[in-house]
Amino acid sequence: MSGEHKILSIDYSKCIGCETCESVCKFANDTPRIHMTRTRDGVMAPLYCHHCEKPNCALVCKRGAIRRDRDGAVILQTMHCRGCQTKSCLVACPFAAIFETDKGVMLAKCDLCANRRQLGLGPACVDMCPCGAIAYVARAEAEALETDASRAAFARVMEHIKPSGPAGK
Ligand code: SF4
Fold it and tell me: Which atom belonging to ligand 1 lies closest to the Cα atom of 19?
């Protein structure tokens, strides 16, 4: 059931913007799937895929290049992606978590470290965050971890990337 699938959850109120998660992701995946952004108030924050229960990116891709894998991760099948000019998935993501690359693969997104999951490991960024800001937990557990501070910090990041707010998970 989708509610039991594990997702990444970053508590922006704990995050110090050190960029370790982006660097670790680049080390593990060659092309980083977490990208730092500087919010309007000058704070660095990582943008990342929330592996939505109803992923807009998958809905809009006419080639069916984005799908959910058996662990519930929303993955981009690069062999099916043609990097179309509309970049519909990139625009549709409410979390600005699909990224253009300068490599052969034109787009990149988090797959919750699929290679590591095959080995029984979790996403590489989780253990390396020096602040314990990243959790790899079931969606319900992620919601239970929310605090007033984390919700406020999340709202600040969302206001930065989409002034009208996220379209919903
Ligand atoms: S590693 Fe942790 S503290 Fe550093 S930017 Fe990423 S989430 Fe924030």
Answer: 5
Nearest atom, ligand 1, residue 14 CA: 3
DSSP the chain: -GGGSEEEEE-TTT-----HHHHHHHHHHSS-SSEEEE-TTS-EEEE-----SS-HHHHH-TT--EEE-TTS-EEE-TTT----TT-HHHHH-TT--EEE-SSSS-EEE--S-HHHHHTT---HHHHH-TT--EEEEEHHHHHHH--HHHHHHHHHHHHHH-TT-----
Its pTM stands at 0.91
In CATH, what class is 2-161?
Answer: alpha beta
pLDDT in tens, 6-52: 999 999 999 999 999 999 999 999 899 999 999 988 999 999 999 99
- Distance between Cα 91 and ligand 1 center (Å): 25
CB-defined site of ligand 1, < 6 Å: 10, 15-21, 46, 129, 131, 133-134
The domains of the chain are located at: 2-161
